[in-house]
Every structure is written in structure tokens, then in C-alpha cells.
Amino acid sequence: KQVQDKIKSLLQKESIRYLIAGGATTAVNILVFYILRILCHMNLNTSNFIAILLAILFAYGV
Questions:
Q1: In angstroms, rounded to a whole number, what is the distance separating the alpha carbons of residues 26 and 2?
Q2: Total domain count, the chain
């Protein structure tokens, strides 16, 4: 039972970290897209490409 509790605790912590990292990556994507598209008046496809690229790089580092 002790081993099962430790495994369950580890999975819960990993899930929380995964959700936080995923949320932060999504926030980076939306923020970069907003800055490029709305504030810099960049083309839709170009700003989306750059936002996705930066979000992927951010996720790789997290």
C-alpha cells in the first residue's frame, strides 16, 4: 500500500507540473500572437507562425 501511495502522489505532482507547463506555453503563444498581430500589425499567418515557434521553444525549455 505504501508503494501505491507514493506512485499516486508522484503521478499527481507530475500531472500538476504538466498542466502548469502547458498553461504557460499556451499563454506564451497567445501573448506573442497578440503582440505581433495587434500591436505590431503583422500578417496573420506570419504572426501565428512566429507565436507557435516561440511557444514550442518555450515548451522545450520548461
A1: 36
A2: 1
